[in-house]
Amino acid sequence: MFNPYKIPTPALISFSGGRTSGFMLWNIIQAYNGKLPDDVHVVFANTGKEAPETLDFVHEISQKWDIKIHWLEMYLGKERPIYRTKEVTYETAARNGEPFEELLDHRKYLPNPVTRFCTSELKIKVMSKIEKRYYISPMRVNAKISDSVIDSEFLTINDLRYVRLSRAPRGRNAFMRLRSVTNDNFRIVIYR
Fold it and tell me: Is the bond preceding 10 in cis, omega lying within 30 degrees of 0?
């Protein structure tokens, strides 16, 4: 039977620390009988502006569900490439906005609807570094974005399954093709 939570491996799961992100992660873990495969990596990208309760929740999930969560933060290097990633822990994670402030000092302006660089710089680029470290293909299952998939409708055309994404670009309806879980091209959410 098709299980959308049994993602192909290797994989990188972005865990935001939110409740629906936790729901998605729990279901992925359960799809693997309570233990993630060694080549599935869970990451939490800390901006330094996360609520203390979010940090506590990520830490608690890691301990209670017995999974390794890579805590990542962006920092700026002195030479190119200046955007760097460091792995931190619950105890050493920034709590006073340091990564965010460092990014603003470098950019010299605030993020806005035209230049939304917070997510790309503080989350996506940070996670891409660990993706390269573990030789994971450029597919990411993003539990935060995938929240839209949880209650989405499915469409079947010629025996191909599609899922409707509620957060489609420019407000358009978008359907993403779901393929067999054994196929490398299966995606819940993909961005490159």
Answer: yes
